[in-house]
C-alpha cells in the first residue's frame, strides 16, 4: 500500500518524500524546476481554473470547495486511473502544492480522495 503525504513545494525536499508529485495547475512562483526535484508534474488532476479562482484560498469557502473539487476528481476518470497506476507500486508519494494555507488546500482533498479509491 502506498503511503501518501502532502507538503508545500517551498519546503526542503527529502529522500523520505519518495515519489514527488506537483499537483498544482500552475507552476509555483519562485521555484526553479531544478530546485523542485519533481518526479512528475500532474496538473491534470488539479482543480479546474474556474474552481481555483472561485476558491481563492478563502477558508470560508472550504466546505463548498472540497465538495466541488471532489466532484471534479470523480469526473477525471482517466487522469485518476493513470495517476493511481503510476503510484501503485511506490512505498511513499508526496503530493506537492504551492498554497500558503496548510489546512485549506486542494492537496488535502486529493489525498483523501485517493485514499478512498
Beta-strand proportion: 15-25%
- Rg (C-alpha, Å): 13 Å
Number of domains: 1
Shape, please?
globular
State the helicity in percent bands: 40-55%
Please give the alpha-carbon distance between the first and last residues. Answer: 12 Å
Number of helices: 5
Order of the strands making up the biggest sheet: 1-4-2-3
- Poorly predicted regions are none
Q: What's the mean pLDDT score?
A: 95
| Number of DSSP strand runs | 4
* Structural class by sheet pairing and helices: alpha/beta
Protein name: Uroporphyrin-III C-methyltransferase
Organism: Owenweeksia hongkongensis (strain DSM 17368 / CIP 108786 / JCM 12287 / NRRL B-23963 / UST20020801)
Coiled coil: 66-93
Keywords: Coiled coil
Structural account:
The chain has 117 residues and is α/β, with parallel strands linked by helices. It has one domain. The protein is built from five helices and four strands. The protein has a four-stranded parallel sheet with strand order 1-4-2-3, covered by helices on one side. Strand 2 (19-22), helix 1 (33-36) and strand 3 (40-41) form a beta-alpha-beta unit. Helix 3 (62-75) packs across helix 5 (106-116). The longest helix is centred in the middle third of the chain and has 14 residues, at 62-75. The chain is globular, with a radius of gyration of 13 Å. The N and C termini lie close together (12 Å).
